[in-house]
Amino acid sequence: MHVARRLLSLVLTLVVASVLIFCVIEVLPGDPAAFMLGMNAQPEAVDALRAQMGLDAGLVSRYFTWAGGLLTGDFGASYTYRVPVAELIGDRVWVSLPLALYALLLSTIIAFPIGIIAAMRRGKAADYGIMGATQLGIAIPNFWFAMFLVVIFAINLRWVRAGGFPGWEDPLAAIGALTLPAIALALPQASILARIMRSALIDTLDEDYVRTARAKGLSQGGVVRGHALRNAMIPVLTIIGLQFSFLLAGAIIIENVFYLPGLGRLLFQAINQRDLIVVESTVMLLVMAVVVVTFLVDMAYAIVDPRLRR
Amino acid sequence: QNTSITLGMQLEPPNLDPTGAAAGAIDEVVYANIFEGLTRFGSDGAVLPALAREWEVSEDGLVYTFTLVEGATFHDGTAFDAQDVKFSLDRARAEDSTNAQKALFASIADVEVLSPTQVAITLSAPNGALPFNLAWGDAVIVAEESAADNATNPVGTGPFRFADWVQGDRVEMVRNDDYWGEAVALESATFKFISDPTAAFAAMMAGDLDAFPTFPAPENLIQFEADPRYNVIVGSTEGETILAMNNGLEPLNNPLVREAVSRAIDRQSIIDGAMFGYGTPIGTHFAPHNPAYVDLTELSAFDPERSRELLAEAGYPDGFTTTLKLPPPAYARRGGEIIAAQLREVGITVEIQNVEWADWLETVFRGRDYGFTIVSHTEPMDIGIYARDGYYFDYAKPEFVALIDELEATSDEGARTDLMQQAQQMIAEEHVNAYLFQLAKTGVADARLRGLWENSPTQANDLTGVSWAE
Amino acid sequence: MISRNLILGGVLSGLFAVLAVLSFVWTPFDVETLSIPDRMLRPSGTHWLGTDQLGRDIFSMLMVGARTSLAVALASVVIGMGVGVPLGLTAAARRDGLLDDVIMRGNDLIFAFPSILIAILFTALVGPSVWNAILAIGIFNIPVFARLSRGAALSLWSREYIMAARVAGKGAARISAEHILPNIANLLIVQGTIQFSVGILVEAALSYVGLGAQPPLPSWGRMLADAQTLISLAPHMALFPGLAIVLSVLGLNLMGDGLRDVFDPKLKRGRAR
Amino acid sequence: MSLLSVQNLSVQIGSVQILRDVSLEMAPGQVLGLVGESGSGKSMTALAIMRLLAEGMQASGSIVLQGEVLDTLSERQMCMRRGRNVGMVFQEPMTALNPLHTIGDQVAETVRLHTKTGRRAALVRAREVLDRVGLEHIGLNRFPHELSGGQRQRVVIACAIALAPKLLIADEPTTALDVTTQGEILELLRRLVREDGMGLILITHDLAVVAEMADEIAVMQTGRVVERGSVDDVLLRPQHDYTRALLAASVHQPVRQVRLESETVLQVRDVRRSYPGARRLIGRAPPVQAVRGISFDLKRGENLGLVGESGSGKSTLARALLGLEPVQSGEIRLGEYLMDADASRALRRRIGVVFQDPFGSFDPRWTVERLVAEPFHLLDNPPPRRAAVEEVLVSVGMKASDADRHIHAFSGGQRQRIAIARALIIRPDIILLDEAVSALDVQVRAQILDLLAELSAKYEVSYLFISHDLSVVRAITDRVMVMQLGQIVESGETEQVFTAPQADYTRQLLAATPRLPEGVAN
Ligand SMILES: Nc1ncnc2c1ncn2[C@@H]1O[C@H](COP(=O)(O)OP(=O)(O)OP(=O)(O)O)[C@@H](O)[C@H]1O
Ligand SMILES: Nc1ncnc2c1ncn2[C@@H]1O[C@H](COP(=O)(O)OP(=O)(O)OP(=O)(O)O)[C@@H](O)[C@H]1O
Ligand SMILES: [Mg+2]
Ligand SMILES: [Mg+2]
Ligand code: NI
């Protein structure tokens, strides 16, 4: 029941978002055809190209063509590249998605242990140290951090490539190429997550059922493992869900630093070239990603928390 | 022995059909490598025969007869013949053509196939520039069978055939073993697109790239120069970089004001500050390496004192305020900041607006909604734009138009030089725009690479002569 | 109790605020005057933090940049609060009603657009500018404040003192203004400082990719973008603006933490375990 | 041999002394009642015995359980004693169980911690224990939120007794429960003590509960045990002043003049109120019928009681009477006017309210002056605020100068006085008291009841007195209505209903209510 309700509101959000995106982007100044043909183009050549691109159709009919296409996976053809948008996006997703997941993985791997340590050593030196470090981690802009990573590891030490993406034919090289960007992205995420982990754990350790468990004879560590951690996952999950949007935003910028052919770079490039259909589809996809992740996180609550099942 | 090369480019071509879009990046990938025209540019800008072995001009200058090479085939195996030439040229000048340089073909009245290896082009008026026009990337010869798909799967007659395009990352091409001409040394070539200058630097430094023919960050060249692994190649381009002024807008319609602007600008500090020393100062809209060039920089020598006087004379003792719209290239963005500061010194306040190309084309170029803008005119020999009616800087003075008309109709070299110099003089004296510098071509390459173009008479990375040293 | 966090955070953020205000009347050098021969100088007695690629004094640029960063972040927090809080309060007052639903779904919708997407769309629409950055970050802040204030207000609406006010015949608007708003003010202030720091970070990111402040207005993010290609030639150009961002964000976050400790003694109360 | 012996137990946090020289003694199979007002240190004593004090609290003194000295054991050893030798049950059944684990696992956890049984065997044991506490029909794989409060409390007890510890400490195990459920839980505890020979420390603030359950009583005040002895000794022959005061307050009867006039100030006819059901994908679940057709009259100066267990709809009815929520049918008349959700201010002026939570019913940011004067919003021409507030404060036994202070500066009893002052300031005809004394200590409660009686006589206000506490209702009302599942099952003169209940439900309620033995001194 709950799932169906959330699903309905998800679909509604996406529909409204698609209208919004389409409207905003279609009123952008700049004509894709004129851009393609440049300074010396003659007006009739531009008009001919507009007709070829299907830009002379009405706004409403173009919306339905586009939105209908979204449903069937046919996003139309890129104005500039002249290839199906789905293909363009399909290629880029295989960079952006692994990058986001890699960063998410890194940040959880880092954040969970240090968050737990800080919570269990509350008020001790380790806690202060970790909290100080995470404050710093949050404050460092990831693109700045990325710049220094490139200088140190790619230019000076030459451990990894400075950027670019070799493709997944060579998985090791691909992962290598994503490592620095993922680290840059993961730093602030991990810091935030560690702080949330700590405070969520501290909160749950104050709960009555923890006291009950202690009265059963469970040790402090046993309580954390057996009771507190899983309960603390609820706020942590929320934050992971919320952070996804930041992760995407960060990825858009980081892709530029490391010239990764991901969705973010596609978006910037398409905006500059007024490849509107690519812009619309990419923005829609990113928005969809945020909405779907939020939905999945909601669903994940139900797994963690039996009160939300059914 | 290394037989492949990886080149860096800042901009990715939107598609790979040079006859359907303006982007220079298309030519940088395909020109002379995949596609060929009847004629072509050499590295020094000379017009050389290509698919046309030779040509003859009729007495009245109206009919050009081209003799084609034999044995050439397109990459898809179809043979190249005169029919393809007719098809390509007719397509480019057709009513519904989407050729970005349609004007190049404006003088053509008819294309006639005389034999499979002979084509006659009839002009509506004499035009000495026809071989030059046909050397452009927009005039390459395509096959009827494959023309429609050239955007994503270019099929030409060149020494390389297209292999793969990973959008957003690279284009790959391999040697065409059936090439009609002299075989090339390289077996394969990859063009990698790296828009971010820092990333470009890092990629070059890390050895991911063999060459970056037009390196986007001149500031980093010192470091390459200091490194024996790299060769820094500095040459010239056809790009006259100007501070364009809207001649139709108050107060820039006043020649005194325009002179004041020109004189307020210190070219050398712009070249140093924005281009880190790369670039040749110019005083008019003409490339300094052209034999017909006259050095007119003195007409607008840096003199803020005089500039202020001129402003006062023109009735603007306190200066004025206008916009400065800057397209994305570094010369514009960085140069704009410096120019804004220099203009402020004489009392002119400019409001900087960074715009994307698409926006620039629409608002500045087409809409003429601007005060100043900085742009590099990279087409070769393009002083004729000053004669265009309604062009974005809105000059087109009748005397100048007459001059250009005469130039078009003249084929005698001496007379042409004279006319071109008159034209240079006229726009420089009128201070139509503030002429800044000729854009340098600053490239970086592996020290063992041979045969890369030094100059850039057109935007191209001609790989036919490129090889690795032993 | 005033915590160490609050003092350290207050001092750091105060420092930047003072620099920003001071920059109106005095900077060591004029940031609009270029001096190409003096470009990329290392830090020295004259130029405390060196000069940039156009020979401008980096310390002066940082001072004016602080003004830009703080102004953008502040304005966007004001937008976020100004729109978000009333929305959240209204939603809470009409809890479970249609209006509540509409407001909260609207929030979800905005929330689905990462700030950078909003900024990209705005830039494409009206060109890049500080206003664009303010609006993008401001819009992004709206759902943050709307959700926060709705959540907090909802828990207050079930309090008995709200019931008492309703018995006294007061309407939802009046109760929201008299009882709810003052009681969630602490929360809003804390969140405000945090969004303030997020604003500085996002502004820097936007300016870095060219969607924020435009020249000649100095901005930390743009200084970083300019420094980028010069990072091996003149590392100080990238170092100092970055540090300015880190320290100001750190200061605000510490202040937020400190304020939370002051406002919410619950966190300090140790209970039997 | 004694089961537990606590000698000179002291606890302090920093320099604040929380427990001072607490000494307790109990034999196996005995029930020790630990009573005392809120904050007297009952819970601290229990936690100190379990060695579960929060960090930063120092305990001293000796605790001997079954001949073993507990206070020198290491934390590890102590973990092995907890749950096996001594079990503990806490007050809040709603939060004492981990919401994410099944009840089976939670009971089995105790078993698995202390014996080397596998999960299956432990679950078998858990089943047995749950059967013992009367949850035969509840599956092991249920989650706490799927159980009622009383059932949850049984699960908590099952966790504590799974290994049949020799000592069980129950800290206010029934405070959060209904009288009927409370009765069942107490009965369960009594049975376990009897069957297992287990010792039980029962902590409560309710003397009547101890009177029914305990063998011995210890009375605590400000961290000290002031009196210890057998139930009869302590209750019937109290030695210490504090014990005497406590007992007196527990059986306190306010002096009231019964003055029934014929004028009806409130007339309620067939009021129904239902809440919309939970939302579904399309439409909603069937509505929750909270109040199902209630009718009654309230006369001027009359004190009318409304009792019934939790969830029976008392507060819902109150909100409807206050015009805070619409009703689905029926009518509420104040004099000749109809009261509904958009009633005029003039109408609202006739009815005031005092809520249960003395702290939560005041905006912490306002001064008492503003708080008390808030109902002036209902008047067109309010009198000068300051003077009116001072006058009413004095009339409820506060100082005029209290008007300048904030609410956190007052004790619970004082806060409730201020709440009454707020209700009184515009002289309503009716004051609704929804659980107005439930959160107060017995002694404070006695004072407030006296105050209410006095004010009712003085200003001729009518009270609708809502409570689940029968003894309080009996003490202060003239007439009483008993509510169950949204309906009134019985109503009549208070004494008559209490002595000769007609409805089954009323009888059940009365039977479940613990009573102090006859003869507890006034
Ligand atoms: N963590 C703590 N820090 C400081 N003081 C505390 C703490 N916990 C309890 N106290 C104080 O210790 C005293 C005894 O508290 P305790 O919880 O034992 O009272 P109680 O008799 O159980 O009261 P109640 O009936 O309200 O549960 C109280 O004055 C209380 O304020
Ligand atoms: N806002 C609401 N929405 C839906 N159901 C509600 C709401 N408020 C109360 N109920 C339901 O109405 C019924 C009566 O609740 P009410 O609060 O009136 O009981 P009560 O007799 O005051 O109980 P208590 O003694 O616990 O205060 C309960 O079943 C409750 O769950
Ligand atoms: Mg207690
Ligand atoms: Mg109630
Ligand atoms: Ni559901």
Strand-residue fraction of chain D?
Answer: 15-25%
Q: Residue share in helices of chain D?
A: 25-40%
Largest sheet: spatial strand order of chain D = 6-7-8-3-9-10
Query: How much helix, percentage-wise, in residues of chain B?
Result: 25-40%
**Residue runs with pLDDT of under 50 for 5 or more positions of chain B:** none
Number of helices of chain D: 18
Radius of gyration of chain B (CA) equals 23 Å
The radius of gyration computed from the alpha-carbon positions of chain D, rounded to a whole number of angstroms, is 25 Å
Describe this structure in words.
The complex is a heterotetramer of chains A (310), B (470), C (273) and D (522). With 310 residues, chain A is mostly helical. Chain A has 2 domains: 2-72, no CATH class; 88-308, MetI-like fold (Orthogonal Bundle), CATH 1.10.3720.10. Chain A has 12 helices and no strands. In chain B, a hairpin with a 5-residue loop joins strand 4 (52-57) and strand 5 (63-68). In chain B, helix 6 runs antiparallel to helix 8 (304-313). The longest helix of chain B is centred in the C-terminal third of the chain and has 17 residues, at 413-429. Chain D has helices at 42-50, 75-81, 103-114, 119-132, 149-161, 179-196, 207-213, 231-236, 241-250, 314-321, 345-348, 368-372, 385-395, 412-424, 442-459, 470-476, 494-499, 504-512; strands at residues 4-13, 16-26, 31-35, 57-65, 68-69, 86-89, 167-171, 199-203, 216-221, 224-230, 264-275, 288-299, 303-307, 329-334, 337-338, 351-354, 430-434, 462-466, 479-484, 487-493. Chain D has a 6-stranded mixed β-sheet with strand order 6-7-8-3-9-10, sandwiched between helices. The longest helix of chain D is centred in the middle third of the chain and has 18 residues, at 179-196. The mean pLDDT of chain D is 87. Chains in contact: A-B, A-C, A-D, B-C, C-D. Bound molecules: adenosine-5'-triphosphate (2 copies), magnesium ion (2 copies) and nickel (II) ion. One magnesium ion (MG) binds at residues 42-43, 171-172 of chain D.
What are the SSEs and their pairings?
The complex is a heterotetramer of chains A (310), B (470), C (273) and D (522).
Chain A: H1 2-26, H2 32-37, H3 43-53, H4 59-72, H5 85-120, H6 125-139, H7 142-156, H8 171-205, H9 208-216, H10 220-257, H11 263-272, H12 276-304
Helix pairs in contact in A: 1-12, 5-6, 5-8, 5-10, 6-8, 7-8, 7-10, 8-10, 9-10, 10-11, 10-12, 11-12
Chain B: E1 4-9, H1 24-30, E2 39-41, E3 47-49, E4 52-57, E5 63-68, H2 82-93, E6 108-115, E7 118-123, H3 130-134, E8 160-166, E9 170-175, E10 188-193, H4 197-205, E11 211-212, H5 221-225, E12 230-245, H6 255-264, H7 267-275, E13 280-281, H8 304-313, E14 321-326, H9 330-345, E15 349-354, H10 357-366, E16 372-377, H11 398-409, H12 413-429, E17 434-446, E18 449-450, E19 467-468
Parallel strand pairs in B: 1-10, 14-15, 14-16
Antiparallel strand pairs in B: 2-3, 4-5, 5-7, 6-7, 8-9, 9-10, 11-17, 12-16, 12-17, 13-17, 18-19
Helix pairs in contact in B: 6-8, 7-9, 11-12
Chain D: E1 4-13, E2 16-26, E3 31-35, H1 42-50, E4 57-65, E5 68-69, H2 75-81, E6 86-89, H3 103-114, H4 119-132, H5 149-161, E7 167-171, H6 179-196, E8 199-203, H7 207-213, E9 216-221, E10 224-230, H8 231-236, H9 241-250, E11 264-275, E12 288-299, E13 303-307, H10 314-321, E14 329-334, E15 337-338, H11 345-348, E16 351-354, H12 368-372, H13 385-395, H14 412-424, E17 430-434, H15 442-459, E18 462-466, H16 470-476, E19 479-484, E20 487-493, H17 494-499, H18 504-512
The structure holds adenosine-5'-triphosphate (ATP) (2 copies), magnesium ion (2 copies) and nickel (II) ion.
Family (chain A): Belongs to the binding-protein-dependent transport system permease family.
Organism (chain A): Pontivivens marinum
Transmembrane segments (chain A): 7-28, 99-120, 141-160, 172-194, 234-254, 283-304
